[in-house]
Write a structure and sequence with these properties.
mainly alpha; 1% strand; single chain
Length: 349
């Protein structure tokens, strides 16, 4: 007991000294452990005194024991991808889409048609203009966040993936064909059930605008439709690229919103939007023939492929991966020539 009292008194004496002079970083002061100074050197130059920002590192067995070298390190999660990483994500999307079973591809394409038709009807319901353009991106946001198959967005994904030798061209043709057909089916289904039979647009007094929009879109010069379609899908695929770059949902929404609203305000031609707007106007009495509708959709399709596939997909493949793809191609050619020569060593010179 006496030894214990002496030890207690000694410790008490030590505390009296500590009260007057704070200890070094990480020591006890006033009975409370003091954090290390914020400017203390840490791995990679990262500093933080907040424990919840620190990441425990696991060994290869997954025990979760932090190694001494990793103690106190901080993991900072990036909110966006580097452009080359974005292209890799586009490649991954292309391989995923190319591997979809036919019925899944058809269902997801039909759903994309519904989402864009919803956006189109919302545009008409609020009277178009700036408000309609500001609300229209909700359709594309739904497409991206549900991984639906939209023909226009797939123009970017598949052109880049084919050029990057990630997907065969047969898969591109398969996806585009199925997506186009079922996007159209989804748009027309929404127009008939929720636009026409429901009388929703008539009740809102928006039927006149629907007729005007349908006649204007189908009655424009075909060359004009083609050029405006290039602009539309250029902006849509820029939105898709930016949305792929963003790591979080909030970032994706902001990245998708402005280019999409811009193409609507500029009066450009998006083929899937027209798949809803033109049939909707025809159901409400627009003076548009079926032949003229498909002519307008065909020109919009060509323009959208160039605007999104060439001016975004091909451009960013060339900027970020073309040299690697070219080197791979030349390597394959050289290997093929070597194999051919080794198979025929006595070939006459």
């Amino acid at each position: 007991m006496d030894g214990s009292d002496d030890e207690t008194n000694a410790n008490s004496g030590d505390r009296d000294v500590d009260l007057e002079r704070p200890q070094e970083n990480g020591a006890m002061c006033n009975g409370v452990e003091q954090p290390q100074q914020a400017n203390e050197a840490r791995p990679n130059g990262i500093t933080s005194n907040f424990p919840f920002l620190r990441k425990r590192t696991s060994n290869f067995l997954g025990s979760g024991d932090a190694s001494p070298a990793a103690a106190g390190t901080v993991t900072i999660l990036s909110a966006s991808k580097h452009p080359k990483e974005t292209l890799k994500a586009v490649y991954a999307a292309g391989k995923y889409k190319a591997g979809l079973r036919l019925h899944i591809l058809a269902i997801q394409s039909f759903m994309a048609g519904l989402y864009i038709a919803f956006a189109g009807q919302l545009y008409l319901s609020v009277g178009g203009g700036i408000l309609g353009a500001a609300l229209f991106p909700g359709g594309l946001i739904a497409v991206i966040l549900t991984s639906a198959e939209l023909f226009t967005g797939d123009s970017l994904v598949f052109v880049a993936s084919v050029l990057g030798r990630q997907v065969p061209i047969q898969k591109l043709l398969r996806n585009w064909t199925v997506a186009w057909i079922y996007n159209f089916a989804g748009c027309v289904s929404w127009a008939f059930l929720l636009g026409y039979l429901s009388n929703a647009l008539v009740d809102l007094g928006a039927d006149g605008l629907a007729v005007t929009v349908a006649e204007k879109k189908s009655g424009s010069d075909l060359g004009s439709i083609f050029l405006k379609a290039i602009g539309a899908n250029f902006l849509v695929c820029v939105a898709v690229w930016q949305g792929t770059t963003a790591a979080e949902v909030s970032g994706k929404i902001l990245a998708l919103w402005f280019p999409t609203a811009s193409f609507v305000m500029l009066g450009f031609e998006h083929v899937v939007a027209s798949m809803y707007l033109i049939p909707m106007g025809m159901m409400l009495g627009a003076d548009v023939t079926v032949g003229r509708m498909f002519a307008a959709l065909f020109m919009a399709t060509l323009g959208n492929v160039i605007g999104g596939g060439i001016f975004v997909g091909a451009v960013y493949w060339y900027v970020f991966d073309s040299m690697a793809s070219f080197a791979d191609l030349t390597s394959r050619i050289r290997q093929s020539m070597v194999r051919r020569n080794s198979a025929n060593p006595l070939r006459v010179q």
